[in-house]
Each structure stands twice: as C-alpha cells, then as structure tokens.
Amino acid sequence: MAKSVDFIIKNATVYNGIDGGSQNVDVAVEKDFIVAVGDCSQLTAKHEIDAEGLVLAPGFIDVHTHDDLEVMRNPQMLNKISQGVTTVIAGNCGISAVPYLTAKEPVDPINLLGHKNDFLYPQVKDYRAAFERASPSVNLATLVGHTSLRAQVMGDLSRSANDDEIAQMKVHLKTAMEQGALGLSTGLAYYNAKASSTYEVNALAEVVTPFNGLYTTHLRTEFQGILAAMDEAFSTGKHAELPVVISHIKCAGKENWGRASEVINHLEKQRQHQDVGCDCYPYAASSSTLDLNQVTEETEIFITWSEPHPEMAEQSLSDIAKQWQISLKAAAKKLQPAGAVYHCMLEQDVQQFLSYQHSMVGSDGLPCDPHPHPRLWGTFPRVLGHYCRDQQTLPLSLAIHKMTALPASRFKLHKRGQIKVGFYADLVLFDANNVIDMADYSKPQQQAVGIEKVWVNGALSFSGDTQIQTKSEIGRAGRFLARS
Ligand code: ZN
Ligand code: CU
Q1: In angstroms, what is the span from residue 469 Cα to ligand 1's centroid?
Q2: Residue 378: its H or E element
Q3: Is 422 left (phi over 0), alpha (psi -120 to 50) or beta?
Q4: For residue 66, how far is its CA from the centre of ligand 2 (angstroms)?
C-alpha cells in the first residue's frame, strides 16, 4: 500500500531557496517536515494540491521586525502570514521586549513595541513560555536590544554606561543568550543609545561570542557619515569575532543620495576580511518615532501618530507647522512623542541595495502604528511583484534566496529556508504573474494579493485570502526558534 502523507503539492514551479533555477517537482509534507521532493508517485495524500502555474518557495523569513509583542497581542499575524512570511526575527534596532520591565511608559524608541503593560517578561524563558501559550501563526527568533539593556539598568540614558552598568547589562545579555536569543542588536542613531561608546557596545558584543551569535546594528548614522558608522559596526564585529548585519541599509538625506555603489563597495571590501551582510526594505521612505535630528526642509515628513496631538496625525509636518504658524522643529517638538514616515531616500539607491547579492529582505514594519508605513503589509509581495516582475530590478530566484536560504544560514535557523527533504515544511505558494502589494502610504493596512497558500511547520496556515485560525491541527503553528 502506498504511504500516506498530509500534503502533496503537485506541478508547482519550485524554487528551493538557493540562488539558481527552478524545477518542476512535487513536494510532499508529513507532520512538520518536507518528506519528498521530486517523484511522489509512491505516496498518497490526505490533501493533494494541484499548483500548476504557481511558484512554491520556502516560507519567507522577515529578518527585520518589531513584532516582539505583536505576536502576543495579535497571534494570527495576518499582516505577515498574508505575505508568505513564516518566520520573523524580533529584537532589532536595539529594542527588544526582553529584558525590559517598566513602571512608566517605555522610553523612545522602545515605545514602538507597545505600552508599559505589554512588557511582562523578565527573561527570554518567560517570553518563550508566553509565546507558546499564544501560539502565533509564525515562527519567531529574537535578538537582544542594547537600548533595552541600557534602559533596564540605567536611569540617565544620555551618557555612556559605566563599568558597573556594563557588568549588569552583561549578566542580562548572557542569560538571554543561554535561553536561546540569537545575538545583540543596537540602534546607535537613537537618542537613548547615541551616547554609548564603542567600548560599551564591544564589551556587550563579547558576551555573544561564545554562543556563536551575531551582531545587528541600526548604524550610528545613515546620513553623510555612513561609511564611518559602518566602520564602527565592522570594528565591533572584529573585536568580538561576530558576523555583522547592517540593518535597513540606506543612503538617507538628499546630500547623501546616489551613494549606494560607494556603500556597497565599502561593504564588499570588508567582506574580504570578515563576515558582514545587510538587510533592506523595498521603499524609499523610512519610518520610526519622530526624531528632531531628521527634521529638515528637504525631507517630506508625514506624521502617523502623536500622543499630545492625536488630531494632527495623518498630515505632513510642514502642513502642521503652517497651521500652527511655527517652525518645523518647533512643530515636531510639540508633537512628540510621535511617529513619522520620512521620505528620505532615492529610488535608485533603494533598487541597488535590494538587488545587491548579499542583502536580505526585512520589513522593519511597525505593528503598533495606527497609520503604519506600508512595508508592514507589503514588503515581500512588493519585492516579488513590483521589483522582480514589473521593474525587473532583480531575478525571482535571487529575491527568493534573499528571503529564505540566505537569512536561514545568516541567523542559523536550523533546517529552514530551503525546500529539502528533512527540512521543516515552512512553505509559500504564490502566483508570480499576479502577486503584488496593495498597501500604500495613504492606505497602508491592505492585504497583498497573489499569495495562495502558506504552511508553517507543516500546518496549512493561510489559504486563498483567508487565514486558517484554529489553534489545533491546522493554523497557528509558529514556534519559538531558539539559537541552535
Ligand atoms: Zn532601525
Ligand atoms: Cu527597525
């Protein structure tokens, strides 16, 4: 009698995650795993899917997220699963939900993750237990944020940590690494981390070394001083012998436009000496909390939320300043704490970073923002539809590689990121002729089209344009991925 499996996906064009061609093979899934790739004629299946004309790829890995607390608040994670994302990396840009307990509202930019009552997890093991209870639809692995460490042990964040504080941060970081965190992230451009010295960052990075982790960084500046900021990141990687990932690589600010080749060359040169890479998102606007240092005449800034002036949200800063008849900086100050979208990049630079062989794709989506940057709902379908198919900025096989096998090896996600026998069945089936992002700057919370089916750990979790939400046999099957 033929062996029976859970799913056989037939006739799809299969991209296995490694940059190269595609194959027309059948893929069989049994329980959590891919059990056959190729001839499945000896198998029968509970569910047979004819995927003629569709592409089957490993589930996408969103390497740059701020989903730390979103997976608890909204475990269905529709904004990610509907893009074909099956794994998210949390804890980026120096901010992580762990370790961070606070009696007051969280400091900037940890406030991007949630409100004070959302921060409930003293250690990674507590976070992991809560994750398992919530049973989100996507897998998650986490970094430990430097700014969170600082905010946990220091009162005044406008200075560098002293040796005693560094020692305390090291203890928190070591515990987190022992409990499965992947590495350290920094957000050195942000006010609450800016004053930290390279010495402070290096001392923390050392803790990660024996665990075989990595170092990711939102650079000290993405404006004119970007090369020096990259050198600082490289020096930390060298010092601690850690791989380095430069987060959301970009040339920000008009005076910095057109420098993508220079930045890529700088990175390429360093690749001869150490393990460095980067991630990027497919948009020419950035988004974060409202930062006075980025308020200039030439950057169009859109206000997404404001705590003291919620009525002013969803307007440009220049319009608000006109209404109030004050300067841009004065208006920005009055709006804070606030969120903003900064139209600060050149489209050609974005395309160069996106098509650069060693960049990964990371959304940097901000799930708490009431009017989020469209990257939260659109990143992956936008790369596949807008950039691969319509603009022909990069080939589909390379784009899939950047979303799957490349990040899986970079973050050491065991048996993920490829379509291979014995690997976890994280899979996405999509229509390459039709896939496209629908979210834009004015209507950012729109589901993409063309993602047909998504499996997470062998469980069908998204189908058609609806989500499969039952917590049992199929549906929300995401796991906490501890460093392996
Ligand atoms: Zn960042
Ligand atoms: Cu970020």
Answers
A1: 31
A2: helix 375-381
A3: left
A4: 6
Give the closest ligand to the alpha carbon of residue 62.
Answer: 2
Residue 477 tokens read as: 């099957």
Q: Are 137 and 461 in contact (CB under 8 A)?
A: yes
Which spans in 243-374 are helix H?
Answer: 260-271, 317-324, 328-335, 347-355
**What is the structure's pLDDT at 475?**
78
Query: pLDDT class for 484, splitting at 50, 70, 90?
Result: confident
Distance 93 CA to ligand 1 centre (A): 4
Fill in the amino acid letter for 379: T
| pLDDT for the residue 465 | 63
For helices 347-355 and 260-271, what crossing angle results, to 10°? 20
Distance from the CA of 475 to the center of ligand 1, in angstroms?
31
**Ligand 1 geometric centre to CA of 185 (Å):** 10
Structure tokens that stand for 426 in this block: 């994280």
pTM above 0.90, yes or no: yes
* Pair 185, 92: CB distance under 8 Å: yes
pLDDT (tens digit, 9 = 90+) per residue, 351-374?
999 999 999 999 999 999 999 999
User: Can you say how many angstroms the Cα of residue 9 is from the centroid of all Cα atoms in its chain?
Assistant: 28
Distance CA 128, CA 179 (A): 9
Q: What residues does 140 pair with on adjacent strands?
A: 88, 480
Phi-psi domain of 251 (left: phi exceeds 0; alpha: psi -120 through 50; beta: other): beta
Type of residue found at 365: G
Residue 249 near residue 263 (C-beta atoms within 8 A): yes
Task: Tell me the two tokens of residue 291.
Answer: 């930062």
In angstroms, the Cα distances linking 473 to 227, 316, 367, 386, 458 are 50, 47, 27, 35, 10
- What is the torsion angle, in degrees rounded to the nearest 10, for the CA atoms of residue 34, residue 35, residue 37 and residue 39? -150
Q: What share of the chain is helix, strand, coil (3-state, %, to 5)?
A: 35, 25, 45
Q: Do residues 404 and 61 lie in contact, with contact meaning Cβ atoms separated by under 8 Å?
A: yes
Contact 353, 264 (CB under 8 A): yes
Q: What are phi and psi of 230, to 5 degrees?
A: -65, -40
- Reference 72, options 118, 125, 112; nearest CA is 118
- Closest of 483, 484, 477 to residue 59, by C-alpha: 477
Which three-class secondary structure string do you get for 65-118? CCCCCHHHHCCCCHHHHCCCEEEEEECCCCCCCCCCCCCCCCCCCHHHCCCHHH
Using CA atoms, how far apart are residues 58 and 424, in angstroms rounded to an integer?
A: 9
Q: Residue 302 above 90 pLDDT?
A: yes
